[in-house]
Amino acid sequence: MQVYKISEDGELISIPLKSVELRSDEVFVFVEDKKKNIFIWKGTEASVRKKFISARSAWKLRGELGPLYKVISVDEGEEPKDFREIIESLKIPLKAAPPAPKEKIEKPKVPELPPPKPTPPPKPTRKPVISKPPKIEKPEISAPPPPPKPVKVEKVPEVKPTVPVVEKVEFKDILHVLEKLDTPPEYARELLIIGTRVYAIAEVRTKLFGKEKVKLSIELLDSLPEGPYLAEGYIPRVIIKDDQVLAIELLKKTRATIEEIKKEIKKGLESYSSLIKKLEKEE
């Protein structure tokens, strides 16, 4: 468990667990490696600047730790169960800030109005004289002309555009294709994009009867940073089958080990010696 304190400049200041005190005017970042959670605890009296900077600092810290870590924002007084269990196990006091006193608002006194004066009865009005309307002679109406004969219009058959049929690809088929692919010695699998979903991918190598087997460990990332993402330090590998893009792998460059370098040199020497033998036979 690691605890950081957010300064006014946005820096993450590491604090020992024994000296952690949750104050209402501070913002702390807790890194839980067991469940891979990054909690941002925000005090009720903390400044808006600290709260804003803490989110940016937590996402930057997640980029250093790996995509499997989740960033969770926690407000003082509304701590979830997982966070409370961490606080209780570390014996960190959690004191909520007292609510601000409410100001008493006195209701304005409404002055008493005098009783309304009685309204006088309405004066009688004269009956209106209704004049008879003049007689209007009805005009002679001639017979309407016969309706025009309907014209037959031949319907033009609708031409529906031909849309290429895209076959659905199952997730198991994609994994089967990925397990057959080897990664270069200087690169390692880290991220996988299928459709609109992003997954964290890793290789799990096991040995059985002297033979090495490679299985893929895949986990869906449900919390992604908003906005554009520049994949620095990655190279994309596009997997295409039957004119369809199945998935896109993001391979991260790593340092090659001495054994891997020896293997590459050995392969190069073997191919070079076989080439020389082939040329000697042709002569």
Could you give the topology of this structure?
Layout: E1 2-6, E2 12-15, E3 27-32, E4 37-42, H1 48-65, E5 70-75, H2 81-90, H3 171-180, E6 187-194, E7 197-208, E8 211-220, E9 234-241, E10 244-253, H4 258-282
Parallel strand pairs: 4-5
Antiparallel strand pairs: 1-2, 1-3, 3-4, 6-7, 6-10, 7-8, 9-10
Short summary:
With 283 residues, this protein is of the alpha+beta class.
Helix content: 10-25%
Global geometry = flat
User: Biggest sheet, in brief?
Assistant: 5 strands, mixed
User: What is the β-strand count?
Assistant: 10
Which descriptors would you attach to this protein?
single chain, 283 residues, alpha+beta, Severin, 10 strands, 22% helix
Description:
The structure is a single chain. The protein has four helices and ten strands; from the N terminus they run E-E-E-E-H-E-H-H-E-E-E-E-E-H. The protein is of the alpha+beta class and 283 residues long. Among the domains are: 2-90, Severin; 168-223 and 235-283, no CATH class. The strands form two sheets. The chain has a five-stranded mixed beta sheet, covered by helices on one side. Strands 8-7-6-10-9 form a five-stranded antiparallel beta sheet, with helices on one face. Strand 6 (187-194) and strand 7 form a beta hairpin. The longest helix has 25 residues, at 258-282. Residues 97-104 and 163-167 have low confidence and may be disordered.
